[in-house]
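S1.2 Input.
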Amino acid sequence: MLKTYCAFLLGSLVLICLQSYTAGHNAKAPEECCFKFYNKPIPIKSISGYEETRFECPKAGVVFITKKGLRICVDPNFKWVKRAIDQIDLRILEESDTD
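S1.3 Output.
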């Protein structure tokens, strides 16, 4: 009886470990979170696009992608960031209308 109980307990433990390992590898974890923000305005002509950080990140952030490929974290609450996002969205909308 004790051997059966130990085998059951060990089997359950192995299954739990495998499940958490699999869930951890398949989870949609944040690919990039911002922990520090660049504070100075970035010229809009230097920005090719942006991504918002995922909701799982400890701080909300926006990652501006420059034409040179740099990724710069900025605070989405700054006025200049909001204006830049609006201008980028407008640029993308205008580009899609011409296609």
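S1.4 Remarks. The first strand starts at residue 47 and ends at 52.
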